[in-house]
Amino acid sequence: MRADAAPGTEVLVGVRPRDIELRGRGHELTGTVYVTEVLGRSVEVTVRLGEQHVSLVAPRGDAAGLRPDDPVRLSVRPENLLLFEADRPERPGRRIETR
Q: CA triplet 97, 84, 19: central angle to 5 degrees?
């Protein structure tokens, strides 16, 4: 991934919940299950990543058997990552275009 930002620019990385998968190709993130909630054919899974919590909706078969504190690997495809300038800690800055 290439970003249109000046060298040395600090960035924040963002990702939309719909772009996170329990099983898939891409960058891997390791965390632990915080809570799961069955939503019919799918399951909302909330995962602890360090001090952050992220939620995703997964097919019921992919989330079967997950319990709180279970280790889990999430994946995000590089093209789905969002980059923002990190010049203001209280809120992200301008979105950085990627190629």
A: 80
